[in-house]
């Protein structure tokens, strides 16, 4: 297969690497423009671009693919290159740009998307985090035939995984590996009768809204189970924050568990602060903080944190 790959972060890099290792020809990679990163805000190529350059593929980084948009010259350049390459398929994974209809129609077998949820559950930008936050028992990866809608295309392959106590970072890594395995399986069957496109059901559609920094503050009036899920869902981004007594700025809470303990205490009250955890009363139950970070400091296990803090 002659494959055009479009993706940007580490989730996509694993899929690109797997496609290349499987023996498919990947002459062109599309990825987001280099972004400022680190303390020095140095322009840094995406993980996918770094992998593409190592593989010797051509890389294009348009700011838009719309021929009638703000950057029509960049879009036309991509169109000319794609037409000349005559790809069998385009694989898209967390690319970050909307694909206009001309892109969807150009490859022989269209465009396939690696989506980190069991569609139609959690269409949209943040399916991994929203699945954890909502308390879903399972999530997974769907390989979808892309159409003009938002994650509405027919599903070619799905694989599920249980959600237990993973953080978003841990679940991301598991789904990234699963996505790489699933897309190579689909490419191996593309164009054969073995591969069946299944329309998504109309029932059960939910949307995974983009994560916002404004969601970071913990509402301690919620129940402990809900708060613990949000902490796992927002690790590492945007991070969950909580104002503790005796500290000027909120701390980031990286790890916490819910205790099935009803105290009757006012939500936000510090019940205990030991090397085992900082126990906080919530709207229902107790939240035990296990890993914290003061403003401007480093992440610390609670046994270290409590030595320099007294409630």
TrEMBL record:
- Annotated residues for binding of (6S)-5,6,7,8-tetrahydrofolate: 117-120
Q: What is this enzyme's EC? A: 2.1.2.9
Report which reactions are catalysed by this protein.
L-methionyl-tRNA(fMet) + (6R)-10-formyltetrahydrofolate = N-formyl-L-methionyl-tRNA(fMet) + (6S)-5,6,7,8-tetrahydrofolate + H(+)
What residue stretches are annotated with the Formyl transferase C-terminal domain?
Answer: 210-308
The record places domain Formyl transferase N-terminal at 1-186
Look up the domain of life of the source.
Answer: Bacteria
Protein name per UniProt: Methionyl-tRNA formyltransferase
Concerning SUPFAM superfamilies, the annotation shows: FMT C-terminal domain-like (SSF50486), Formyltransferase (SSF53328)
Its cellular-component GO annotations read: cytosol
The question of whether Protein biosynthesis is a record keyword is answered with yes
InterPro entries from the UniProt entry = Fmt, Formyl_trans_C, Formyl_trans_C_sf, Formyl_transf_N, Formyl_transf_N_sf, Formyl_transferase-like_C_sf, Met-tRNA-FMT_C, Met-tRNA-FMT_N
Top enzyme category: transferase
GO molecular-function annotation terms? methionyl-tRNA formyltransferase activity
């Amino acid at each position: 297969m002659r494959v055009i790959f479009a993706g940007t972060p580490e989730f996509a890099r694993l899929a690109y690497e797997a496609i290349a290792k499987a023996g498919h020809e990947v002459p062109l990679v599309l990825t987001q423009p280099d972004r400022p990163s680190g303390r020095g805000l140095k322009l840094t190529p995406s993980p996918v671009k770094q992998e593409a350059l190592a593989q010797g593929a051509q890389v294009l980084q348009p700011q838009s693919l719309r021929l009638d948009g703000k950057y029509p010259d960049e879009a036309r350049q991509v169109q000319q290159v794609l037409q000349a390459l005559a790809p069998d398929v385009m694989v898209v994974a967390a690319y970050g740009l909307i694909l206009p209809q001309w892109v969807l129609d150009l490859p022989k077998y269209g465009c396939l998307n690696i989506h980190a949820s069991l569609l139609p559950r959690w269409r949209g930008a943040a399916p991994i985090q929203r699945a954890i936050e909502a308390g879903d028992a399972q999530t997974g990866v769907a390989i979808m035939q892309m159409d003009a809608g938002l994650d509405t295309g027919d599903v070619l392959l799905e694989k599920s995984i249980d959600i237990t106590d993973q953080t978003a970072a841990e679940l991301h890594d598991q789904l990234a590996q699963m996505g790489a395995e699933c897309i190579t399986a689909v490419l191996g069957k593309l164009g054969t009768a073995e591969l069946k496109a299944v329309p998504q059901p109309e029932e059960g559609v939910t949307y995974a809204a983009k994560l916002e920094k404004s969601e970071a503050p913990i509402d301690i009036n919620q129940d402990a189970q809900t708060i613990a899920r949000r902490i796992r869902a927002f690790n590492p981004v945007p991070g969950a924050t909580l104002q503790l007594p005796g500290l000027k700025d909120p701390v980031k809470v990286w790890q916490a568990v819910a205790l099935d303990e009803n105290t009757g205490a006012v939500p936000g009250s510090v019940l205990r602060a030991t090397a085992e955890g900082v126990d906080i009363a919530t709207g229902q139950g107790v939240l035990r903080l296990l890993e914290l970070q003061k403003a401007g400091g480093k992440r610390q296990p609670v046994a270290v944190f409590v030595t320099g803090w007294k409630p």
